[in-house]
Structure prediction request, 411 residues.
Amino acid sequence: MSTLHALAARAARAPRAASGDARRLAALHVLDTMGCAVSGATHPIAAAAARHFGDSLRSRVLRWSAQAHLDEFDALHAEAAVVPAAVVVPAALLVAEHEGRPGAAVVDAVLAGYEAVVEAGLRFGGASLYGSGWWPTALFGPLGAAAATSVLLDLDEERAVAALAIAAAGLGGLLSTGSFGEAHYLLPGRAAADGVEAAYLARAGATGSLALLDGPATLALGRPPSPASPLEGVHLERCGFKPYPCARPLHAVIDALLALDVRDAAHVEVALPSGLMSFVNADREVPGPAEASAGAAFAVAAVLSGAPEDVSTFRRARLPAGVPPTTLVPDPELDALLPGHWAARVTIETPSGRSSHRVVDALGSPARPLPPDAVLKKFDTLTAGRLTAWRARCLTLDDLDGATELTRPIT
Prediction:
């Protein structure tokens, strides 16, 4: 069986294998993702992109998916190093609206889409791909969107595998370095839109090579796919909601800073796994919000602000006065904890001496999941409390007659 066949089978299994709790969790993922997308529409980067996009299905998927990731606030599977929420949820909602599908079909699609993109990330090394310049979400995101759309189009096994093959034919996505700009955040949008398109093409009879992930991808990525991960529940259950709007390696940093008294710090040293340092920085001056959200100094500023969950510190992209010098160093001991634990060690120097704190599992990781009440509070904050009725409908997604009840209030 080819890797694409295995991914398609896994995606098809997910809705059947999901427990009632997993289905309710999928609805919470839809809620969290769309809160990020609504807030993302006000992000400084969003304005330039919004002027370009129209109202076609592809354009809407691309725009919503990009917005969902703009604040780095969308859910992540750390071991696979992918953010499935941004590439799957908008696609599932908008295709369901387009096809007149009920809420239960959206839940099925989200479960299937998460399963495909996470399993692909796991089988090709997850965070280790950062070291060779690849962004796993951009690489494998089209597979997640294609799997989700295949469910909503009721594609049979042959057509669903073809959808993944068509999506795989265009896989790519380099990890941005230096200035991220708008381009980095368009990648999840393009991935989602390409995946949706792949499923529609498969429905029309188009096909692709079923060996793409076993031959060409192995050469391009420098590794063959590993064996399939254990069939235990569904992958969505191990995707963590983010409590802070910044790059995931900085979440353990923020937790460590919160455990220390940084108000009198004269210097902050942030140690991270070397494998996660390729897309974070310690710059005090950055080109824009995208770089600030990956900035260790801005994580320090967010903690000093007293509200590290607030998007404003990272969006302003200018350090306020009083942020101490911050340095970033690799720690081989933390590398040994990857891929399951994105750990950090923070050391501060104060007039009274040095103190250090290590966090192995950040808040929001599977070991320390963000409670549902905190996810709901996050949604209300991101939407300024304007979507309370929408929130109630989303939490009963499995029982909704149609997806338009959720898509219509979102622009």
